[in-house]
Automatic annotation (TrEMBL):
Keywords, sorted A to Z: FAD, Flavoprotein, Monooxygenase, Oxidoreductase
Secretion signal, residue range per the UniProt entry: none
Name under which the protein is recorded: NAD(P)/FAD-dependent oxidoreductase
Lineage: Bacteria, Bacillati, Actinomycetota, Thermoleophilia, Solirubrobacterales
Superkingdom of origin: Bacteria
Cofactor dependence: FAD
Entry's EC annotation: 1.14.13.-
Amino acid sequence: MEPEHVDVLIVGAGLSGIGAACHLRADSPGKSFAILESRAASGGTWDLFRYPGIRSDSDMFTLGYAFKPWTEAKAIADGPSILRYIRETAAEHDVEERIRYNHRVVRAEWSSQEARWTVTAARTDSDEQVTLTCDFLFGCTGYYRYDEGYSPRFPGSERFTGEVVHPQHWPEDLDYAGKRVVVIGSGATAVTLIPSMADRAAHVTMLQRSPSYVMSLPAKDPIADFLRRLLPAKAAYPIVRWKNVALSSTLFQLSRRAPGFVKKLIRKGVQRQLPEGYAVDTHFAPTYDPWDQRLCLVPDGDLFKAIRSGRASVVTDRIETFTESGIRLASGGELEADVIVTATGLNLLLLGGMSIAVDGREIDLSKTVGYKGMMFSGVPNLAVTIGYTNASWTLKGDLAAEYVCRLVNHMEATGNNVVTPLAPDPSLPTEPFIDLASGYVLRSIDDLPRQGMRAPWRLHQNYALDVVMLKRGALEDDGIRFTRGGEAAARVAAQAAPPDQLVV
């Protein structure tokens, strides 16, 4: 029996996958598609994470889809609101019926002769395996492991008699009311948890090895509220979206060109919201420059309010060992705890961990070079959504989906059915694919593809440039080849990006 065939197969039914399906509906209406989702529900990150206070770390006018205005009051939205928005979008665009739940993609094999992918998925609710074929494979799986977060081995952790929880696997029945809580970490998850738990806990301590940059942002956007009173939602939304893009891009560029100035700016903002004499330089002055790691945003300064009230505190120190009743610090101090939350980060994982083969050759993505930040040298008819590190994920997600639609439409119009990215000249140097010094990136940097020094092999962290390149730019350039399936396509795939010629 022949496996089911679709024109485009989307992997992942989260924010990116639902958006990709909506773009296919609108921009490539004649193309058939299906979505394979490993979990039993849609929403991705926003269904998986259930910890207290889960919220966006970007404003919803840029984290929302370009084609569906965000109409709720809060610009920094809570997780349930974002999940509801994603599912409303799927329902409005008749996407829900295309999702196959409990299908975890384990392998994809490309045949140049047949010009198609054969994709194998394991049913997570049974022992069954399912096979589908597709002309184009679109990975919308995010870039971290859903089944486990990063949990370093802490000495003495087995001695602790309280509860240890990772935010990625938050127990529904965890009762922390009136208890002493220590949150290990200083990233976006930690700064979200602290004020949320402080309302019910006896006290919450954020224990960090080193500080992060933390900025307060209004939970509501006053300019957006003003424009929405004057204009229809569809008219106000793009104006606010571009306004917020411009602000975040300006801050990023300023951080790169005048890091000292931005450091002082952020420090002053923090100092204004903390008690007089607070040790700002100890707890909120990182040693790295702004945007070497992602900034942490706190709506209406809720973290600082919790600290001012005495319900929360920050300790900057190293862990010597867990004890029966808490944590002993390298400085000799001790933190007593009933609950310890290890907000210690993610494990990166491209394409949900599926293995890939092209014409019988196993593909190691770390040996490839990225093309336009979404395709890989020598891997035909495959694209992924990888959002911005310095702006909202969906800004890039929308552009990636639009670009895939342009590709499949272009192939149909020109009589081609294979598109293969090429690597840059092997004598040219390459760089890591993601330019961040965050721990979760550095731990996995050797497993990620590389990027070139210039377009189209450069991963821009610039929305305006990507609009020009992905939405308006030429589809045919020096970095890509369009062919018909068969020997010519096989030769292009085999010759692209020889691993031993990459210059690091």
